[in-house]
Amino acid sequence: MIAVDGFSSCGKSTFAKEIAARLGYIFIDTGAMYRAVTLCGLRAGVVSARGIDREGLVALLDRIDISFRFNSERGASDIYVNGECVEREIRSIEVSGCVSAVSSVAEVRSRLVALQQQMGKNKGIVMDGRDIGTVVFPDAELKIFMTADPMVRARRRYDELRAKGEEISMEEVEENIRSRDIADQTRAISPLRKAEDAVVLDNSRMTVADQMEWVLERLRKMGVCE
Ligand code: DC
Protein backbone atom coordinates (compact mmCIF):
# COMPACT_ATOMS: atom_id res chain seq x y z
CA MET A 1 0.00 0.00 0.00
CA ILE A 2 1.49 3.31 -1.08
CA ALA A 3 -0.11 6.50 0.29
CA VAL A 4 0.50 9.78 -1.53
CA ASP A 5 -0.81 12.83 0.36
CA GLY A 6 -0.19 16.52 -0.08
CA PHE A 7 -1.35 19.93 -1.19
CA SER A 8 -3.68 20.70 -4.11
CA SER A 9 -2.19 20.73 -7.60
CA CYS A 10 1.14 19.22 -6.57
CA GLY A 11 0.91 16.61 -9.27
CA LYS A 12 -0.04 13.85 -6.81
CA SER A 13 -2.27 12.04 -9.29
CA THR A 14 0.26 12.13 -12.14
CA PHE A 15 2.94 10.81 -9.80
CA ALA A 16 0.74 8.17 -8.15
CA LYS A 17 -0.51 7.00 -11.57
CA GLU A 18 3.08 6.59 -12.80
CA ILE A 19 4.07 4.58 -9.74
CA ALA A 20 1.03 2.32 -10.16
CA ALA A 21 1.81 1.76 -13.86
CA ARG A 22 5.42 0.93 -13.03
CA LEU A 23 4.52 -1.60 -10.32
CA GLY A 24 1.33 -2.98 -11.92
CA TYR A 25 -0.65 -1.64 -8.97
CA ILE A 26 -4.12 -0.05 -9.01
CA PHE A 27 -4.25 3.75 -8.73
CA ILE A 28 -7.09 5.37 -6.77
CA ASP A 29 -7.62 9.15 -6.84
CA THR A 30 -9.60 9.91 -3.68
CA GLY A 31 -9.87 13.63 -4.55
CA ALA A 32 -12.02 12.51 -7.51
CA MET A 33 -14.40 10.85 -5.03
CA TYR A 34 -14.86 14.09 -3.02
CA ARG A 35 -15.29 15.94 -6.31
CA ALA A 36 -17.93 13.44 -7.48
CA VAL A 37 -19.97 13.97 -4.29
CA THR A 38 -19.61 17.75 -4.79
CA LEU A 39 -20.85 17.48 -8.38
CA CYS A 40 -23.90 15.49 -7.23
CA GLY A 41 -24.56 18.10 -4.53
CA LEU A 42 -24.38 20.94 -7.07
CA ARG A 43 -26.72 19.14 -9.44
CA ALA A 44 -29.21 18.41 -6.65
CA GLY A 45 -29.09 22.03 -5.48
CA VAL A 46 -27.81 21.18 -1.97
CA VAL A 47 -24.32 22.59 -2.67
CA SER A 48 -23.60 26.03 -4.09
CA ALA A 49 -20.93 28.72 -3.91
CA ARG A 50 -23.04 30.31 -1.13
CA GLY A 51 -22.87 27.24 1.10
CA ILE A 52 -24.10 23.73 1.81
CA ASP A 53 -27.48 22.36 2.83
CA ARG A 54 -25.85 19.81 5.11
CA GLU A 55 -28.96 17.72 5.78
CA GLY A 56 -29.79 17.61 2.09
CA LEU A 57 -26.23 16.57 1.24
CA VAL A 58 -26.18 13.80 3.85
CA ALA A 59 -29.55 12.51 2.59
CA LEU A 60 -28.14 12.48 -0.94
CA LEU A 61 -25.19 10.24 0.04
CA ASP A 62 -27.34 7.08 0.00
CA ARG A 63 -28.18 7.77 -3.63
CA ILE A 64 -24.59 8.18 -4.81
CA ASP A 65 -22.86 5.07 -6.09
CA ILE A 66 -19.19 5.74 -6.92
CA SER A 67 -17.03 3.39 -8.96
CA PHE A 68 -13.91 3.48 -11.14
CA ARG A 69 -13.52 1.88 -14.57
CA PHE A 70 -10.26 1.55 -16.43
CA ASN A 71 -10.07 3.67 -19.60
CA SER A 72 -7.47 2.07 -21.86
CA GLU A 73 -7.21 5.22 -24.05
CA ARG A 74 -6.13 7.32 -21.06
CA GLY A 75 -4.27 4.49 -19.38
CA ALA A 76 -6.09 5.38 -16.13
CA SER A 77 -9.42 4.85 -14.41
CA ASP A 78 -12.40 7.15 -14.97
CA ILE A 79 -14.79 7.86 -12.14
CA TYR A 80 -18.48 6.99 -12.50
CA VAL A 81 -21.46 8.13 -10.46
CA ASN A 82 -24.55 5.93 -10.74
CA GLY A 83 -23.21 4.58 -14.03
CA GLU A 84 -22.38 8.00 -15.57
CA CYS A 85 -18.77 8.90 -16.37
CA VAL A 86 -18.09 12.27 -14.68
CA GLU A 87 -14.32 12.40 -15.10
CA ARG A 88 -14.48 15.70 -17.00
CA GLU A 89 -17.28 17.40 -15.03
CA ILE A 90 -15.57 16.92 -11.64
CA ARG A 91 -12.54 18.99 -12.75
CA SER A 92 -14.50 22.23 -13.37
CA ILE A 93 -13.71 25.36 -11.39
CA GLU A 94 -17.26 25.29 -10.00
CA VAL A 95 -16.63 21.89 -8.39
CA SER A 96 -13.13 23.00 -7.27
CA GLY A 97 -14.68 26.02 -5.54
CA CYS A 98 -17.07 23.91 -3.43
CA VAL A 99 -15.15 20.68 -2.82
CA SER A 100 -13.30 21.80 0.31
CA ALA A 101 -16.58 22.61 2.05
CA VAL A 102 -18.11 19.29 1.01
CA SER A 103 -15.03 17.36 2.13
CA SER A 104 -15.26 18.89 5.61
CA VAL A 105 -18.66 17.26 6.26
CA ALA A 106 -18.15 14.32 8.68
CA GLU A 107 -20.71 12.03 7.05
CA VAL A 108 -19.16 12.56 3.61
CA ARG A 109 -15.72 11.69 4.96
CA SER A 110 -16.80 8.59 6.86
CA ARG A 111 -18.69 7.28 3.83
CA LEU A 112 -15.78 7.84 1.44
CA VAL A 113 -13.09 6.61 3.86
CA ALA A 114 -15.03 3.32 4.30
CA LEU A 115 -15.25 2.96 0.51
CA GLN A 116 -11.52 3.69 0.10
CA GLN A 117 -10.61 1.11 2.77
CA GLN A 118 -12.80 -1.44 0.98
CA MET A 119 -11.13 -0.65 -2.38
CA GLY A 120 -7.66 -1.04 -0.87
CA LYS A 121 -8.18 -4.13 1.23
CA ASN A 122 -6.30 -6.46 -1.17
CA LYS A 123 -3.29 -4.08 -1.36
CA GLY A 124 -1.30 -3.53 -4.57
CA ILE A 125 -2.71 0.00 -4.45
CA VAL A 126 -1.36 3.54 -4.86
CA MET A 127 -3.89 5.92 -3.33
CA ASP A 128 -3.60 9.70 -3.42
CA GLY A 129 -5.39 12.25 -1.26
CA ARG A 130 -5.02 14.25 1.94
CA ASP A 131 -5.53 11.72 4.74
CA ILE A 132 -4.46 8.41 3.24
CA GLY A 133 -1.31 7.96 5.37
CA THR A 134 -2.93 9.41 8.50
CA VAL A 135 -6.52 8.05 8.48
CA VAL A 136 -7.42 5.73 5.60
CA PHE A 137 -4.32 3.49 5.65
CA PRO A 138 -2.20 4.46 8.67
CA ASP A 139 -0.26 1.18 8.21
CA ALA A 140 0.67 1.87 4.56
CA GLU A 141 4.12 0.46 3.75
CA LEU A 142 5.22 3.69 2.03
CA LYS A 143 3.86 7.16 2.78
CA ILE A 144 4.82 10.13 0.62
CA PHE A 145 3.90 13.71 1.50
CA MET A 146 4.04 15.96 -1.57
CA THR A 147 4.47 19.69 -1.59
CA ALA A 148 5.51 22.42 -4.06
CA ASP A 149 5.74 26.20 -4.18
CA PRO A 150 2.16 27.65 -4.39
CA MET A 151 3.06 29.73 -7.46
CA VAL A 152 4.41 26.66 -9.26
CA ARG A 153 1.22 24.78 -8.38
CA ALA A 154 -0.99 27.64 -9.62
CA ARG A 155 0.86 27.75 -12.94
CA ARG A 156 0.47 23.99 -13.45
CA ARG A 157 -3.24 24.10 -12.63
CA TYR A 158 -3.80 27.16 -14.84
CA ASP A 159 -2.12 25.47 -17.82
CA GLU A 160 -4.16 22.32 -17.24
CA LEU A 161 -7.50 24.19 -17.09
CA ARG A 162 -6.72 26.41 -20.09
CA ALA A 163 -5.72 23.33 -22.11
CA LYS A 164 -9.19 21.98 -21.38
CA GLY A 165 -10.74 25.21 -22.62
CA GLU A 166 -11.80 26.67 -19.22
CA GLU A 167 -12.12 30.47 -19.23
CA ILE A 168 -10.18 31.33 -16.11
CA SER A 169 -7.61 33.87 -14.96
CA MET A 170 -4.35 33.14 -13.17
CA GLU A 171 -5.64 35.20 -10.19
CA GLU A 172 -8.71 32.96 -9.83
CA VAL A 173 -6.53 29.84 -9.86
CA GLU A 174 -4.13 31.30 -7.28
CA GLU A 175 -7.03 32.25 -5.04
CA ASN A 176 -8.60 28.79 -5.38
CA ILE A 177 -5.32 27.09 -4.42
CA ARG A 178 -4.73 29.48 -1.51
CA SER A 179 -8.20 28.98 -0.06
CA ARG A 180 -8.10 25.19 -0.53
CA ASP A 181 -4.69 24.99 1.21
CA ILE A 182 -6.13 26.83 4.22
CA ALA A 183 -9.38 24.85 4.23
CA ASP A 184 -7.59 21.48 3.86
CA GLN A 185 -5.14 22.23 6.69
CA THR A 186 -7.58 23.77 9.14
CA ARG A 187 -10.71 21.62 8.87
CA ALA A 188 -11.73 19.90 12.10
CA ILE A 189 -11.87 16.34 10.74
CA SER A 190 -8.82 14.70 9.14
CA PRO A 191 -6.98 17.91 8.24
CA LEU A 192 -4.14 17.70 5.75
CA ARG A 193 -0.96 16.95 7.68
CA LYS A 194 2.14 14.91 7.14
CA ALA A 195 2.08 11.49 8.82
CA GLU A 196 5.05 11.19 11.17
CA ASP A 197 6.53 8.36 9.15
CA ALA A 198 5.93 9.95 5.73
CA VAL A 199 8.80 11.04 3.47
CA VAL A 200 8.53 14.56 2.04
CA LEU A 201 8.78 15.17 -1.71
CA ASP A 202 9.02 18.83 -2.76
CA ASN A 203 8.68 18.69 -6.54
CA SER A 204 8.80 22.46 -7.27
CA ARG A 205 11.87 21.97 -9.41
CA MET A 206 11.52 18.32 -10.37
CA THR A 207 10.25 16.70 -13.55
CA VAL A 208 8.04 13.63 -13.39
CA ALA A 209 11.10 11.58 -14.41
CA ASP A 210 13.08 13.03 -11.46
CA GLN A 211 10.24 12.14 -9.12
CA MET A 212 10.09 8.59 -10.47
CA GLU A 213 13.82 8.18 -9.94
CA TRP A 214 13.37 9.44 -6.36
CA VAL A 215 10.59 6.97 -5.57
CA LEU A 216 12.12 4.01 -7.41
CA GLU A 217 15.25 4.36 -5.32
CA ARG A 218 13.09 3.98 -2.21
CA LEU A 219 11.11 1.10 -3.64
CA ARG A 220 14.32 -0.71 -4.60
CA LYS A 221 15.61 -0.34 -1.06
CA MET A 222 12.30 -1.79 0.19
CA GLY A 223 12.69 -4.72 -2.23
CA VAL A 224 9.42 -3.83 -4.03
CA CYS A 225 11.04 -3.49 -7.46
CA GLU A 226 14.35 -4.00 -9.22
O1 DC B 1 -6.82 16.14 -4.96
P1 DC B 1 -7.95 17.08 -5.39
O2 DC B 1 -7.55 18.51 -5.52
O3 DC B 1 -8.67 16.56 -6.59
O4 DC B 1 -8.99 17.02 -4.15
C1 DC B 1 -10.18 17.74 -4.16
C2 DC B 1 -10.55 18.16 -2.75
O5 DC B 1 -10.96 17.02 -2.01
C3 DC B 1 -9.48 18.85 -1.95
O6 DC B 1 -9.72 20.24 -1.87
C4 DC B 1 -9.55 18.24 -0.58
C5 DC B 1 -10.48 17.08 -0.70
N1 DC B 1 -9.86 15.79 -0.36
C6 DC B 1 -9.91 15.37 0.94
O7 DC B 1 -10.41 16.11 1.80
N2 DC B 1 -9.41 14.16 1.28
C7 DC B 1 -8.87 13.36 0.36
N3 DC B 1 -8.40 12.16 0.72
C8 DC B 1 -8.78 13.78 -0.99
C9 DC B 1 -9.27 15.02 -1.32
What features would you describe in this structure?
The chain has 226 residues and is α/β, with parallel strands linked by helices. The protein has a single domain (2-221), classed as 3-Layer(aba) Sandwich (Rossmann fold), CATH 3.40.50.300. The protein has 9 helices and 10 strands. It has helices at 12-23, 30-44, 54-61, 93-103, 106-119, 132-136, 150-163, 170-186, 208-221, and strands spanning 2-6, 26-29, 47-48, 51-52, 66-71, 76-81, 84-85, 125-129, 142-147, 199-202. It has a 5-stranded parallel beta sheet with strand order 2-8-1-9-10. α2 packs across α4 (93-103). The longest helix has 17 residues, at 170-186. The protein is globular and about 50 Å long. Bound molecules: 2'-deoxycytidine-5'-monophosphate. 2'-deoxycytidine-5'-monophosphate binds next to α2, α4 and α8. 2'-deoxycytidine-5'-monophosphate (DC) binds next to α2, α4 and α8.
